[in-house]
Amino acid sequence: MKEYDSVEIADAAGARVALGLSEHDEYFRPWTEALGLLEAPFEPLDIPEGDRLDVLLERLKIPREDHAELTAALGEICEPGTAWRWLLDRTLRDTVNWLDKLRDSERPVVPDGLMVHHLGAAGRWFHVVANLAAVSQVRAFHERHRIPEEVSWASLAILGEKVAIHRRSTGHGGLVHLKGVAEAFRGRRYRLGQLDHVWCRTGVVVELPHGTGPLTTVPDYAWAEGVDRFFNDRLGEYGSGVKLGYNAMDIRAFGFFLDPALEEYLPEDHELSRFANTLVRTYSRTLRASEPDERGLSDSDRSALEYAFGLLVSNVEQALALPTESAVQRAVTDHLRAGRHWGTASAAHPIFARSTREANTVNQP
Fold first, then answer.
1. pLDDT of 172-199, one tens digit each?
2. Which segments of the chain does DSSP mark as H helices, in order?
3. Dihedral over alpha carbons 178, 181, 182, 185 (to 10 degrees)
4. pTM of the predicted protein model
């Protein structure tokens, strides 16, 4: 267990001092100061112990090899009166607050990539523990909104999938990249079938997580109607930000798999090609260039590598050294090997049924 300065935790500055974060103040200050605005009393922690904890970790797909270290870190992070507990109480409150808001005009206070290696096991596991503490309240939110149990647990298990990717990428347990997890635990992201769906007031964004192959989902009109109906029947804020009318909303997909360059590497009947081409035929495709950083990879390159390999790849040299087995893996790395980069492309499927349904409702006397 890592030793920290023993000081009374009165505010965000005190928490940063206690954890030795002051030397990185510009990095940690915005997050901790925002958490410091949240006032007591805080929700009691509801994290099971013993066999019940093991059952929960299994349901969340936390790799079994990480259970022991995570359990040990739990004790340190949950210890009353510590800087870790100061952060934990407020991070839990932040999650609960966002469940109540369910708006897309603001963003939750979730620091991607913070609290990691230099803070020891507690730092690597902090955000996992914070989400464990929120499970009971997220599940209650799902029940209030009639989210089916299998969808609820599949959505929360995105946490374990991200932990598994972290372990494959770094060789140890923990969690760094929080975007998909934060959205799932804030009632915004749902795993429906093979795909992740992130809803907002103007539509749905679909993402393909690692491990979705073989991809059998057909993005046709019936699929679009089903997705729209799922959210429209359960979450009142969904769709409230659009004007009624023909083709007012859509289900939009973003990703490297919509880059036309993929057609150079995969046959037309490949599952990923079929999915992309169906979307493109229905709606126009837009492509935005994605520039590489100093490590030779763009954001879209990293997304492609995570989808294809289930890895967080730090630089282009590491990417080109990866062994390839599938056609998608070869396509992703061959494109990079040619000195090219994957673009950020998007396409959408209109929700015709919603426009008709809402317009008919409005026109009724």
1. 999 988 879 999 999 999 999 999 999 8
2. 12-18, 25-36, 50-59, 67-78, 83-101, 120-144, 149-156, 158-170, 179-185, 221-232, 271-282, 299-309, 316-320, 327-337, 352-363
3. -160
4. 0.89
